[in-house]
Design a protein that fits this description.
Blueprint (H helix, E strand, L loop, with lengths): L1 E2 L7 H13 L7 E3 L5 H13 L3 H6 L2 H14 L2 H27 L4 H26 L4 E4 L19 H15 L3 E5 L2 E3 L5 E3 L5 H11 L5 E5 L20 E3 H9 L10 H7 L3 E5 L8 E4 L11 E14 L9 H11 L4 E6 L3 E6 L5 H9 L3 E14 L9 H8 L6 E5 L5 E7 H29 L1
Helix pairs in contact: 2-5, 2-6, 4-5, 4-6, 5-6, 7-8, 8-10, 9-10
The protein binds adenosine-5'-diphosphate, aspartic acid and magnesium ion.
Aspartic acid binds next to loops.
Length: 458
């Protein structure tokens, strides 16, 4: 059971977490928690301040966050448990202060030290949740995730290594067998040498999936602040609604293309062990949420959801040398490989290749190398829109339906068929909201109105 930042953001939220865990106690849950909402952002911002040379301001900027933790402890813990937590928080505060000073003096050391600092988010929330569960009569035991999530040393975006599964079992099995609830922080791990790492923003979902797979859990539950995976991002589409069942394939595509509710790496460990993933709302625990399983039916409307990702950069490389030549694409991708830059969507024609990049930080170094291959055109502030559904596999006319809805909006890099369950294209960021709301209306809302009318008439 993984609880996200908003699910542990204050005393009331954590009290609800304890109730949810209690109601599942017979299923021998393992609990994974994120840092309390907003804390990871504050910790990262504090590192930036330290890198800029101001350790004092960096440490001061976290005072309010520590107060939030202590306020929760004050409300939900008593006596020795409260005192123990106050001392855990004081210790964290002192260590972070020291680390800020080291970073301010030697800014180049920052990537591993940033992870060391950022990990305190999950460290403090997991200790707090463990204490509250105990206070509420649930026998919980804290497990330091860094002892079992073993990763490479790619700080900030580390990859768990194969030995993780056995380490998770070694830490958690005994606790579960003794009828206790292991509680661990998501998102954090450590290298073989024991140096702290993090798995990338939103990575607690991934931790939950890794832990669930290692323990061959009956289900991996992602508890968040919305009732499941919705037909579109609810921050953009007010009428977005819960999708009851998704296939692994559909959920993975939605996560890759921006549905923040699931970290993109969450689905693979579930697929490996055929474990269902359930996305539930900790603010409305009785809502059904979304169940993600191996296969789902294609819905009558065919399209299940629309995902989008803003802030994308597209690069087009054009060269007549490509015509009838071989080895060009290899040379092109080698450039991206050399600069460790991930490419999302690719479309090609006879003489040009377009690629989309999520993280464009390496562009200044990358472009001169690409220019060796051809003319390079770069466009920033683009949005990838991805329409997903198993029904796309074999329903004719979907593309025509989608593009007729947004026929007045300039669309590029259309990709269909690469994955059998999605249709992906690019628009300028300024037109994204309009395109998505219109698509949502036509794909989901109009048909809902028609269905309702039909039922009323019947
Ligand atoms: P947590 O802190 O629980 O991990 P996140 O903020 O990472 O929560 O993810 C949940 C949020 O994802 C929702 O509040 C919603 O704004 C956003 N979101 C984006 N796309 C979708 C979608 N298709 N379905 C549900 N939520 C989505
Ligand atoms: N706390 C981390 C983040 O904000 C991990 C997570 O919430 O999943 O990115
Ligand atoms: Mg998240």
């Amino acid at each position: 059971m993984k609880f996200g930042g908003t699910s542990v953001t204050d005393a009331e939220a954590i009290r609800i977490v304890a109730e949810i865990v209690k109601s599942s106690i017979r299923s021998h849950p393992v609990v994974v928690v994120s840092a309390i909402a907003g804390f990871t952002n504050s910790l990262i911002a504090s590192v930036d301040k330290a890198v800029a040379g101001d350790a004092r301001t960096a440490s001061k900027s976290l005072e309010a966050e520590f107060e939030r933790h202590l306020a929760i402890a004050g409300e939900l813990l008593k006596g020795e448990r409260r005192a123990a937590y106050v001392s855990v928080a004081a210790d964290a505060r002192a260590k972070i202060r020291q680390l800020h000073k080291i970073i301010a003096a030697h800014p180049v050391t920052s990537p591993p030290l940033q992870d060391e600092i950022v990990a305190y988010g999950e460290h403090l929330s997991s200790q707090l949740v463990t204490a509250v569960l105990c206070e509420q009569g649930i026998p919980a035991l804290h497990v330091d995730a860094r002892r079992c999530i073993k990763t490479d040393d790619n700080y900030g975006n580390a990859t768990p290594q194969p030995e993780t599964a056995a380490a998770v079992r070694a830490e958690a099995r005994f606790i579960i067998d003794s009828k206790k609830v292991p509680v661990l922080g998501g998102f954090i791990g450590s290298t073989a040498r024991g140096v702290t790492t993090t798995l990338g923003r939103g990575g607690s979902d991934y931790t939950a999936a890794i832990v669930g797979a290692a323990l061959d859990a009956r289900e991996i539950q992602i508890w968040t602040d919305v009732s499941g995976v919705l037909t579109a991002d609810p921050r953009l589409v007010a009428n977005a609604r819960t999708i009851p069942i998704l296939s692994y394939h559909e959920a993975a595509e939605l996560a890759y293309f921006g549905a923040k509710v699931l970290h993109p790496k969450t689905i693979q460990p579930a697929i490996d062990q055929s474990i269902p993933v359930r996305v539930c709302n900790s603010r409305a625990p009785r809502d059904a949420g979304t169940l993600i399983v191996a296969e789902s039916e294609s819905t009558p409307q065919t399209i299940k959801a629309i995902a989008h990702k803003n802030g994308v950069t597209t690069v087009q490389v054009t060269s007549a040398r490509m015509l009838g030549a071989y080895g060009f694409l290899r040379a092109l991708f080698e450039v991206f490989d050399r600069h460790k830059t991930a490419v999302d969507v690719v479309t090609t024609s006879e003489v040009s290749v377009s690629l989309s990049i999520d993280d464009a930080r390496t562009m200044p170094d990358l472009i001169p190398d690409l220019e060796q291959l051809g003319t390079v055109e770069v466009e920033e502030n683009r949005t990838i829109i991805s329409v997903v559904g198993e029904g796309l596999r074999n329903t004719p006319g979907i593309a025509a339906r989608v593009f007729s809805v947004i026929s007045d909006i300039n669309v590029s890099m259309i990709s269909v068929g690469a994955s059998s369950v999605n249709l992906t294209f690019m628009v300028d960021e300024e037109h994204a909201a309009e395109a998505i709301t219109r698509l949502h209306r036509v794909c989901f809302e109009d048909s809902a109105v028609t269905e309702k009318r039909a039922r009323v008439t019947a």
